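Quick question, first post here. What does this chain look like in 3D?
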Amino acid sequence: MFERTERFEAFTDAVVAIILTILVLEIHLPDNDHSVHALMEMAIPFFSYIITFIFIATMWVNHHLLFNSIDRIDYRIIWSNIVLLFFTSLLPATTAWMGSDINSVLSSSLYVINVILFNLSSINLKKSVMRINDIPKMEQSLQKEWISLAINCFTLIVTLFIPFFPLIGLLSSIFFWFIPERSSKTN
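> Answer (accepted):
Ran it through. C-alpha cells below.
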C-alpha cells in the first residue's frame, strides 16, 4: 500500500494529455479544398471530436477529485487505473472511425462498446478505491457509474438501428458527470 499518490496522479495526467492530443490529430482538414462546403463536410468528425473531448475532460475532472479525496493506493488501484487509461486511449481511434462515417453501424457500435468498456473499468477502479479508502458519497458516485453504464448500453442497442445515436447517447451520459461530486478526505 502506498501513502503518496503524486506519481500515480502525474502519470494519469500525462496519459490523458497525450490522449487528448492524439484525439485532435485525428481531425484531418482538407488540403486542397478551402471552401465552406469542405468545412461543412468536417461537421460530423468535428462534432464527434467535441463530444469525446468533453467526455474525456469530464472523466479527468472526476478522476482528479476522486484521487484528491483518498489517502492511499495499492497495486489493484494502479492496475485498475491502467485498464481505465487503456480504454480511454482507444477513444481517439474509435472517435475518428465513427466520425468518418456516421451512418456505419459497425464504427458507431465499436465506439459505444469502447465507452461501455470505459464505464466498466471506471466502476472497477472506484470499487478498488473504496476497498481501502473511506470516502464520503462514494456510493452515490458508484450509482452514477451504473446509470451511465445503463445509458451507454441502451445507446448501443439504439445504435444498431440508428448509427448516429452515439453522439446523443454520450451527451446524455456526460450530463450525469458534468457536475462532479465533491468529496473530502476522512481521517
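The two ends are 16 Å apart (CA to CA).
Residues 134 and 186 are 7 Å apart (CA to CA).
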